[in-house]
Automatic annotation (TrEMBL):
S-adenosyl-L-methionine binds at G60, W62, D80, D96, D121. Residues 28-204 form the Ribosomal RNA methyltransferase FtsJ domain. It comes from the Bacteria. Specifically methylates the uridine in position 2552 of 23S rRNA at the 2'-O position of the ribose in the fully assembled 50S ribosomal subunit. Belongs to the class I-like SAM-binding methyltransferase superfamily. RNA methyltransferase RlmE family. It comes from Aquitalea magnusonii. This is Ribosomal RNA large subunit methyltransferase E. Its EC number is 2.1.1.166. It is found in: Cytoplasm. It is an enzyme of class 2 (transferase). The active site is at K161. GO terms for molecular function: rRNA (uridine-2'-O-)-methyltransferase activity. Keywords: Cytoplasm, Methyltransferase, rRNA processing, S-adenosyl-L-methionine, Stress response, Transferase. Signal peptide: none annotated.
Length: 205
């Protein structure tokens, strides 16, 4: 079947994208790696010894970045609704984060370890930013924040991808209630036309 014009445009942009080329060269599974690397360069969230959870981890580039930095004293726990090929020193479970049993299984995996950091790049399959997409996306953000509230050490940090929309301000407020400081980040690898932005909560109270 012939490809639509928009999927052809996407394919052409993707192939020519400098971050796609860099990811291939550096051995990362997705261009998203460079978003986390840029944020980490600025905010020093991941260091040797950091224990963290990566929510919405597949195909795995954020987990790859994290595992390379945390080293043997740290730990990366990862979860996605999709399968993810194994990454050395990353403990992964596959499941839907909205389901209580999946959350319980993930919490078991942590084995009582409190986290220094939660990173969430979760995003539902977007059909075109309709009100329903917005609602589904914010549900994942809410659940990730709840998880951070329950499992971060005092002083811990939370990085979450959000899409700017009507839920943004109340969500920002709930982050401000939990963290000493909340900042926004729009790394260069995040496409300008995307309404995605990252919120970073620093210093869980
Ligand atoms: C943008 S991708 C993440 C890319 C990843 N950070 C990386 O660097 O490879 C968003 C991910 O969120 C996951 N996701 C969406 N809804 C989910 C859910 N309900 N539970 C768990 N993961 C979910 C998707 O399957 C997808 O893999």
């Amino acid at each position: 079947m012939a490809r639509s014009t928009s999927s052809n445009t996407w394919l052409r942009e993707h192939v020519n994208d400098q971050y796609v080329q860099m990811a291939k060269k550096d051995g990362y599974r997705a261009r998203a790696a460079y978003k986390l690397l840029e944020i980490n360069e600025k905010d020093k969230l991941i260091r040797p010894g950091t224990v963290l959870a990566d929510l919405g981890s597949a195909p795995g580039s954020w987990s790859q970045v994290a595992a390379r930095i945390v080293g043997p004293q740290g730990k990366v726990f990862a979860l996605d609704i999709l399968p993810m090929n194994p990454i050395a020193d990353v403990d992964f479970i596959q499941g839907d984060f909205r389901e209580d049993e999946v959350l319980a299984e993930f919490v078991d995996l942590l084995d009582g370890r409190a986290l220094d950091l939660v990173i969430s790049d979760m995003a539902p399959n977007i059909s075109g930013m309709s009100a329903m997409d917005q609602a589904r996306s914010f549900l994942l953000c809410e659940l990730a924040l709840e998880f951070a509230r329950d499992h971060l050490k005092p002083g811990g940090c939370f990085l979450v991808k959000v899409f700017q929309g009507s839920d943004f301000q109340p969500y920002l407020q709930s982050m401000r209630d939990l963290f000493d400081e909340v900042v926004t980040r729009k790394p260069k690898a995040s496409r300008d036309r995307s309404s995605e932005i990252y919120l970073l909560g620093k210093g869980r109270r």
